[in-house]
Design brief:
Layout: H1 3-6, H2 10-21, H3 27-47, H4 57-69, H5 74-93, H6 99-103, H7 121-134, H8 139-150, H9 154-159, E1 165-166, E2 171-174, E3 192-195, H10 198-210, E4 226-227, E5 230-231, H11 234-244, H12 247-251, H13 264-267, H14 281-294, H15 299-306, H16 310-317, H17 322-332
Helix pairs in contact: 2-3, 3-4, 3-5, 7-8, 8-10, 8-14
Protein name: Tyrosine-type recombinase/integrase
GO biological process, one term: DNA integration
GO molecular function, one term: DNA binding
Length: about 325
């Protein structure tokens, strides 16, 4: 074997893996892998694992223990280990490690592989009230209004142009435009028109009139969610949601007993994800879908609106409790 195949720093191997896979992945997939493997690189540095070729089962076991001690959920750990396993499979294909390292890797088995975190309707209502009072018609207000009212994916929201919004008829058009930099997860099957509630349309109208930058992107399209440089990136939009959903941001209080003056998540927007109460955009989508289900809307109609199969909706997005389902059945059947 050559020297290259018996000696490689973990950081270099991860960077090569991500660089090779990036053209094949959606931006959200790349972000998830990059985030998960950055945790692994932090572990390698702390454990003084300087050569990826020397990784063995003890390192993987220690990584699991370290992440559990960090207080993450078993579902988050499961996802991180899946990312690590994909990376190690690539390392094996490159001749960096033996196949048994991957074959013998044991994933944790969370009791429920379906993520349960979601933004509750009550929390969403508090955020809406905060935005109406303190950040009215800002980009962040428009972003949250779109995500909560429609339940669409963040990448779908990013893909919207000003011309895709129809203010008089209160709806938005969604289009898969891969050649213009805005592909959608389900490609052309995601093309659809989505009705908006009046409250969401009013926010978009005022945002476009007062705070929209009026810029075009690299494809001469006018993005709906825009910075002064053009179409907002997914990472920036994700950061807006992380910052906004910190409870201290929209209520002024910390439900986790932290001193806000000493809390990095409260003081530095770049550390917003370290707040236990903040969520990424996907729990907003899950919360919106759950809210629509609790309102009694048919799953088939929600499936079309949110571009998610009914079976997938049941398995991954229906976060209602059994009590909520029972209460809805009581209401629908007019049981006193």
């Amino acid at each position: 074997m050559t020297e290259r195949r018996t000696q490689m720093k973990p950081e270099r191997a991860v960077n090569r893996f991500l660089s090779e896979k990036k053209p094949e992945w959606a931006e959200s997939t790349y972000y998830n892998y990059s985030s998960s493997l950055s945790r692994f690189l932090e572990f390698c540095e702390e454990d003084e694992l300087n050569n990826i070729c020397e990784i063995d089962g003890f390192h993987i076991s220690d990584f699991k223990s370290t992440r559990r001690n960090d207080g993450i959920s078993e579902m988050t750990l499961y996802n991180e280990l899946n990312s690590l396993r994909s990376f190690l499979k690539w390392c094996n294909a490159m001749g960096l490690i033996e196949s048994w390292v991957v074959e013998d890797m044991v994933l944790n088995e969370p009791d429920d592989k379906v993520r349960s975190d979601k933004l509750d309707a009550e929390e969403a209502e508090m955020i809406r009230n905060y935005l109406n009072q303190f950040e009215y018609a800002t980009l962040r207000h428009a972003l949250f209004a779109i995500l909560w009212d429609t339940g669409i994916r963040l990448g779908t929201a990013r893909s919207l142009d000003v011309d895709d919004y129809h203010p008089e008829e209160h709806y938005i058009e969604v289009h898969h435009r891969p050649e213009q930099g805005t592909p959608l997860k389900n490609e052309s099957e995601a093309n659809r028109e989505i009705n908006l509630h009046t409250w969401a349309s009013e926010i978009l109208d005022d945002y476009l009139q007062m705070n929209h930058k009026g810029v075009t992107d690299d494809h001469d399209r006018e993005p709906l969610l825009a910075s002064r440089h053009g179409r907002m990136s997914l990472s920036n939009l994700r950061m807006h949601i992380r910052r906004l959903t910190r409870p201290c941001h929209y209520t002024g209080d910390c439900p986790h007993g932290r001193d806000q003056n000493d809390c990095e998540a409260a003081q530095d927007y770049r550390a917003a994800s370290q707040c236990p109460g903040s969520v990424s955009p996907h729990p907003v989508r899950r919360g919106a879908i759950t809210h629509w289900l609790n309102e009694g809307h048919r799953k088939e109609l929600i499936s079309e609106r949110m571009n998610v199969g009914v079976q997938t909706l049941d398995e991954h997005y229906d976060a209602r409790t059994e009590s909520e389902k029972r209460s809805l059945r009581r209401e629908m059947f007019n049981i006193e």
